[in-house]
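Re: export button greyed out
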Amino acid sequence: MSCLPLLILLAPALGAIAIAAVGSTRHALVRRISVLATGLSLIGALWAVATYDAPTGGYQHEVLVPWIRSLGIGFHLGVDGISVVLVLLHALCAFTGVLISYAIKDRVKEYYLFYLLLITGVFGVFLSLDLFFFYFFYEMAVIPMYPLIGIWGSDVKEHGVVRFSKEYATMKLTIYLTLGAAVALIGLLWLYVSSGAGTFDIPRLQQHFVTSPLGMPLQRAIFPLLFIGFGIIAPMWPLHSWSPIGHAAAPSAVSMLHAGVLMKLGSYAIIRIALSLLPEGAQMWLPWVAAICVMNIIYGGFVAMAQKDLKLTIGYSSSSHMGYVLLGIACLTPLALDGAVLLMFAHGLMTALAFALVGHVYDQTHTRYLPDLGGLAHQLPFIATCGVIAAMASSGLPGFANFVAELLVFLGGWDRYPAAIVCGVFGVVITAVYMLRLVRGTFFGPRKPVFTHVQDTRTLFARLPYVILVSALLFVGCWPQPLLRLIDASSRPLVERIRPSVALAKPTPERTLRRLPPPRPHPAPSGRQGHP
Amino acid sequence: MTIPLPWLSVELFACAWILVLLAADLLLPEARKASLWLWTLAGLGICAILLAGQAIAGGHHLIQQMFLVDPFSRFFKALFLGTAAVVVVMTRPFGRHLAGRLGAFYLLLFTAVLGMLVLASVHDLLMLFLGLELLTFSLYIMAAYLRTEARSIEAGMKYLILGSLSSGFLVYGMALLYGFAGSTHFEAIRHAFEVGPVPPIAVAGLLLVMAGLGFKIAAVPFHLWVPDVYEGAPTPVVALLSVGSKTAGVVALTRLLFGAAPTMAGLWTNVLAGLSAATMLYGNLGAIPQTNIKRLLGYSSIGHAGYLLMGLSAGSQSGVEAVSFYLVAYFVSNLAVFLAVTWAGEQLGSDELEQYNGLSKRSPFLAAALFIGFLSLAGVPPLAGFVGKLFVMLRAVESGRLWLVAIGAVNVAISLYYYLMVIKRMYLDAPPTSTTFRLDRLATVTLSLLLLGVLWLGIVQEPLVRQILVSVRP
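Workaround output, generated via the alternate export path:
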């Protein structure tokens, strides 16, 4: 029993309750409560990362309270090497998001209430080791998006004409995600019933499937339900269309969480549930997934190139970049899976940074339309610097975490799907094109007289979120080993369990290269071999 | 024959209290009749105490085995008493519409409660008919209670005509079942079904009785009365219809199917599954274009009937458990919504959705209550409705009907759409006027308790699940 996950999860939840009790005019107090709540979560997340024992691996910091005994539902929290990294990502995005939200002046109390509920839901998903609570928090994370975008969002305009209203965007987002969740729910319930184990507990289901694996036809049937259901939020082509519009309409701090973390829920759910509980179904379907990923990368990239709204560009680029994450998962090699998880982390920070910047630009200039902007580096030196950094990180320049992650995906996937990897590398070029175009169009060029009133972030406090995000990106980019060690401790056993042949393969160069400890003998392969 | 007083105490007291209310209505001076709601609440409270006194395990058959008092009936009797109590609270703001005839209104409310209490204990076709008619007749009158409003009269008429038709089905089906089994008793009918052979006429009888009960539950294709009656009837009556009457119908259906025809499960589970799919789709799709909140809630209540039937169509005890949880969740969520709608209707002067624009600025508490209530009805965690839907779907998966679960899951998204459209009006749109209003203390406390229940059941399910496990044991 450890109280660490409880701290991380309950701090924002209690913060939301406290805010509900505070008077609606006390904006400063509401903001302070939010900073305190997410700050506590961030400290908890850092502590969890620091204390996670990678050589031991497995689930750590566990909390288990039986919840509904007759159905085998337990309030089971815990982290493994993959989720602990994502918890850290979310804590960083949440904390910086709360700081960025200081720009919100209207209905502050309600805003932070929904924002903290959203944060709680996402933490819950990353921490849950029980299918019931996983789904519980997953849905709980989706719903606050509706008021957050609907009330505090902005319409997407082109030449001053509304292209998508925020009402349309938020409804589309909510309905898409709820439908996805519903599809996934069918898969989860089917999985629960057909397992015969009578438990929603993920580790116990894993163990159960070692001794009595689910039949192949069932795995084949359930896997697509889970994959499509969770893939919608990932967002997987061709079900991604809710996502860029949702990003564009959302207030910037919500876009930060949305693109930074919420989209990662999908890929995380696929790793945590679909891969680990349905290994054979995964093996059968993943080649198709790889093909879809290529579409994600290339199609998303080209559409991003054609956009003129800053947020839409970054929104489509996110859907393009999540293609790399899904591709890394589809490759099913330890290296590529490590890369996929690290890319979730890196892309989350990068995109949060990008949305924060665009938010500031929009607040100051009241436009996000690329042809209207230009020359802002004169007025916004700090923001422009961060913008260039975000563009470089996004294009995968060495020195940033994105480079390491994408490289791992490419290296790890080369043996499996060389064609897809080639397309992926081509996608990096596309990213460079639209990101550079975006930076040039926004920040460079002659000084425009309409923007003379535009102000940069001046106080250290206002710059803090940008500084946190940039330094995290650089730190992990230059020294990825601490995080990779954690991720690898969980992704390697997972891949070895799904494809036992990998475990028996010759010692790979990457293992010696990265001085990894020898893989922990996992019960899964031996158990399956022992089973007649 | 001796009357076993302890086991019948609740029903007998309810009968007595009806007379007390009648006398009070006649004898109290006009000025003090406003206190009648307290008399009604007191009656319900004493009923609840008597119910709590029947701490019994196992079943007790009474009145020549026509009446079954067991934990299952006790569980739902408690729910009915709670529903009636909240309806009484709702009549407070609504009272001025009923003025002058308030005494009779509470009297009818109590006869409806008596009907529901009887329905929870039915173990005989005659008792089923008695309870159902007692409930329905009270509701006919109550639906048409606003004599000066054409819509209310229309609602009462529609309900009466379609209700009589369904009673016809019911009686005809009962006659056929009696002809088949030679008795109206559930045990005898079950025995006859078990021994067989089962002639088609008996199957027709069973289906006709199910149709009659389907009317109470508002399942497609017996739902035609719902939108108009919901729109026209007084809002507290609609709440009683939507929560009390529907629950009573589900309970009676459960009693009938599991008590009298368990061997026919192969037939009725499939019938219920088909009805469930049609009901969910019709209710939720029909709710989308509505512009009146009561009509919208009418269609949504049809949608919920579909989920209830889905749970019953599992044909298992665990399915009934899931339905029981769903009913409790529906009870807290829907009553919270109706209490809020009653108040909003009074303050806004209309039940049209347009009036709800910008409600969050005019009455934040009311808007928040509707927000939570609607999301719970849609099935969003961490609220009660989510758990109810999850349980029901889980049991349907267990019974192997994945197609039905798929329809149910899609309907969650559909229902979320129209609930969110109302929430959008309340939170996103600009209010027509900036006048604000507040609820009185009684309504605030009741609504807060209901919302607390919605949250509590969404997060801590174990106590209720355990209570249900004890109650539903056959």
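Strands of chain B lie at 60-62, 67-69. The button fix ships in the next patch.
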